[in-house]
Amino acid sequence: MKKFASFKKVTINTHIVKKHVIRLGEKTYKKTQDANVFFLGIGDFVLFFWETVKETFSLGFEFKEFLRQCYLIGYKTLPLISVTGLIMGMVLTIQSRPVLADFGAVSLLPGMVAASIIREMGPVITALICAGKIGSGIGAELGSMKVSEQIDAMEVSSTHPIRFLVVTRVLAATLMIPILVMYADALGILGSWAAINIKGSVSFVLFFHQAFRVIDFMDFLPAVIKTFFFGAAIGFVGCYKGYTAGRGTESVGKAANSAVVLASLLVIIIDLIAVQITDMLL
Amino acid sequence: MQESTKKNNLVIEICNLSKGFDNQLVLKNLSLNLMDGENLVVLGKSGSGKSVLIKCIVRLLNADQGSIHVLGKNVNELRSKELAKLREKIGFLFQSGALYDSMTIKQNLEFPLIRIKKKLTKKERDEKIEEVLVNVGLGETLDQMPSELSGGMRKRASLARTIIVDPMIMLYDEPTTGLDPVTSNGISTLINDVQKKYKTSSIIITHDIECARATADRIIMLKDGDVYMEGSIDDFENSTDELIQSFFKEKT
Questions:
Q1: Which portions of this protein are annotated as coiled-coil regions (chain B) (predicted)?
Q2: CB–CB contact A145 B60 (8 Å)
Q3: Cα nearest neighbour of B95 on chain A
Q4: How sure is the predictor about B1, in pLDDT bands with cuts at 50, 70 and 90?
């Protein structure tokens, strides 16, 4: 016969239960607060974006500051992009050559490298480098302007800081990054030709012919279009993080750091979306 | 009749102003007036809400409650364009000076001038910049960067940038903080000179008693976000109030 378990008399310690309920309540409250901060942050971001769009199309465009930013974002980034572009092409060629050689398809190397540089590697690597240099630069600059009350000073002297600081930087980044990407693409292809010539001898004309035999306008166009979005995202995130930095000097570093992280993440996400759209359309 | 004349001379009228941050009230139902041509010094310990007060006046911070009338206009109800117009008549000297790091002193002074005095020619602008810089004793710094100037010089340059657009009201946020006594005296003298030359009405936020002595027509002391005492410098110095005495003794 099955023996029934004997039940013990259970005494409930109300003090412990109360303590657990309180702890649960505190945790729930903290989570709610965190969610609140998160959604407020999104709201802030959207409002800042809307204000930037509004000021972009309002009268009184700060053309001189826009040109200065184009110089700083475009010209001052050229050395870094030159080195990166050249090395990108060389590395891609040196890494791909043995695999193609196994299949006896070394003649396809210029076309393969050119296609991967123009379609993907050039835009993404250049944009990530720019997210690091330009995004952090803008974030730190505006962050320190905020901390030292320069943005407030601008506001009280009847200048709209978003029009002067944000619109000019976002537009300069949107315009300059596609140019930097095309420049990096060109140097990448040049680097590839140089790398091929390390182990063999191919004239530039032949290399150029082989490279662009497999590339057409529709390879080039989507890649260029997405770089405008990369530029806008990098400029905007840098400005947003700097402009909304806290009051202490520590927040300048935080602004620069989070601008790089968020801008890099956005570049990857935009790239994924762009690739999906291109795939659907072509 | 006397009341209405007094009302007409008011350039700033603040009624029951309250402002708080994170459930902590910094200003509590504060009311004060600034008369035309007057230098009003606002004294108070750190954290008493002095800087918050003048930031509310130019709406760098939005008031939670109460009204602020500047030159007859309710600051809290102005649209952004109207607010920008009103701000053209107000000069704000920031505690840190807030000179634009990436610009030379000349470009710093040109910045508000181009945007507010749009009708001036380049020659007139250059003359005005030179005149104002000479007035603050910085005639030789035109092409220098802010980082090349000393703390006192930066304050002077910042003051020059503020007065270059001929404001009617000046708001000084701790103008002598971080400066040696000699330079502080120089800044206090400059504040009086600006008042005389440009016929401004000023609110001077400070906890520097020497600056208050040198510049004040009237003094207001803030405590816990409200007016604790109001009067002339003599009233304050002769006060038997423990807090006022300790403040004046300590600071002197």
A1: none
A2: no
A3: A149
A4: very low
Distance CA A157, CA B85 (A): 10
Q: What percent of chain B has pLDDT over 70?
A: 95
Give the relative orientation of helices A109-116 and A204-213 as an angle to the nearest 10 degrees: 60
CB contact under 8 A, B94 and A152: yes
Residues of chain B with C-beta less than 8 angstroms from the C-beta of A142: none
B40 Cβ under 8 Å from any chain A Cβ: no
Chain A residues closer than 8 Å to B59 by CB: none
| Reduced 3-state DSSP string for A184-211 | HHHHHHHHHHHHHHHHCCCCHHHHHHHH
pLDDT at B126 over 60: yes
**Residue owning tokens 């600059």:** A141
Is B72 strand, coil or helix? coil
Name the residue in chain B with its Cα closest to that of A64. Answer: B111
**Cβ contact (<8 Å) for A157 and B85?**
no
What was the ipTM of the complex prediction?
0.88
CB pairs under 8 A between A and B: 50
Q: Using one digit for the tens of pLDDT, what is the confidence trace for A144-173?
A: 999 999 999 999 988 899 999 999 999 999
Tokens of A172: 């300069």
| Residue B98 in tokens | 């807030």
Question: How far is Cα A147 from Cα A138, in angstroms, rounded to an integer?
Answer: 14
Question: Considering CB atoms only, which of B92, B100, B165 is closest to A150?
Answer: B100
**Are residues A157 and B95, on separate chains, in Cβ contact within 8 Å?**
no
* Beta strand pairing call for B73-74 and B169-173: unpaired
Residue A38 — very low, low, confident or very high, per pLDDT cuts 50/70/90?
confident
Rounded to whole angstroms, the Cα distance separating A24 from B190 reads 61
Quote the DSSP letter at residue B171.
E
Domain ranges of chain B: 1-82+169-252, 97-166
For domain B1-82+169-252, is the CATH number 3.40.50.300?
yes
**What pLDDT is recorded for position A39?**
86
Which chain B residues have a beta carbon less than 8 Å from that of A152?
A: 55, 60, 92, 94, 98
pLDDT > 90? residue A27: no
Comparing CB atoms, the residue among B92, B95, B102 nearest residue A156 is B92
Q: How far is CA B122 from the centre of its chain?
A: 29
Any chain A CB within 8 A of the CB of B166? Answer: no
Interchain pair B116, A155: CB under 8 A: no
> Would you call A267 helix, strand, or coil by DSSP?
helix
CB contact under 8 A, A149 and B94: yes
Q: CB–CB of B12/B33 below 8 Å?
A: yes
> Picking from A10-14, A183-187, B68-72, which range would have the lowest pLDDT averaged per residue?
A10-14
